[in-house]
Amino acid sequence: VKAFQRIVAGLHNKDSHIPYRDSKLTRILKEGLGGRAVCVPVVHVGLDSYEETEAMLLLAQKLAELSSKVAPSLINFRREIEERSQRIADLCARTGKREGITAGEVELGLASSPQLLELRDLLAEKERFEREQQEWDDLLSLTARFKADGGASAAAARRDRKMRPEPRVHVIEDDEDEGHVPPARPTPGAAGAPRGQGGVQDTGGAE
């Protein structure tokens, strides 16, 4: 929450540097607060604490006063991947990391250098762009197939999704068919029946 408050204060004061990397929450909200996506803040105000209510209202007031230019989300995936690949190669040479390392393999600690943190962020962005590029290529391929066969492949795919697997039949073997007779359970009142279940203790004598 403090990192989010610093972001809002920086945007409100129009600072030159906005510390979006201070927390995961502010990294997620970077696109929305920076004008690349729609961000709708919902502020919950509690009536049990005056200090918390005042702080949330002041935060909501700063959020309401924020304004930013909306930038078009036109991304050239190949160009973004190439630019990050060049910077990643440079950072790998400086930090001693091997080429082809993934973002998950970069271990960060309290004493990690800013170069190592930048390397991890660039690797994560590159992997995200590669996934989006692959999804876009697959979508273009499906669109081309749809136009070529007049939609027959899409209709076949829908039919395959609607098909349900046949129900499985479970065969339960009966022990009585093999000549096995389950043991009889003691009846209430019979000799040898446990106490508390209506049984009578056999004392061995006649009443």
Question: How would you describe the overall organization of this protein?
Answer:
With 207 residues, the protein is mostly helical. It has seven helices and no strands. It has helices spanning 2-12, 24-28, 30-33, 50-64, 77-95, 114-149, 152-162. Helix 5 (77-95) runs antiparallel to helix 6 (114-149). The protein is extended, with a radius of gyration of 34 Å. The termini are far apart.
Offer a quick outline of the entry.
This protein is 49% helix and 0% strand. It is built from 7 helices and no strands. It is extended and about 65 Å long.
Which short descriptors sum up this protein?
207 residues, mainly alpha, extended
List the helices and strands and how they pair.
Layout: H1 2-12, H2 24-28, H3 30-33, H4 50-64, H5 77-95, H6 114-149, H7 152-162
Helix pairs in contact: 5-6
Quaternary state of the chains: single chain
* Tally of helical segments: 7
Task: State Rg.
Answer: 34 Å
Low-confidence stretches: 196-202
CA-based shape:
extended
Residues in helices, as a percent range: 40-55%
Order of helices and strands: HHHHHHH
Structural class: mainly alpha
Question: Sheet with the most strands?
Answer: none
Residue fraction in strands: under 5%
The overall average pLDDT, rounded, is: 76
End-to-end C-alpha gap: 83 Å
DSSP E strands, number = 0
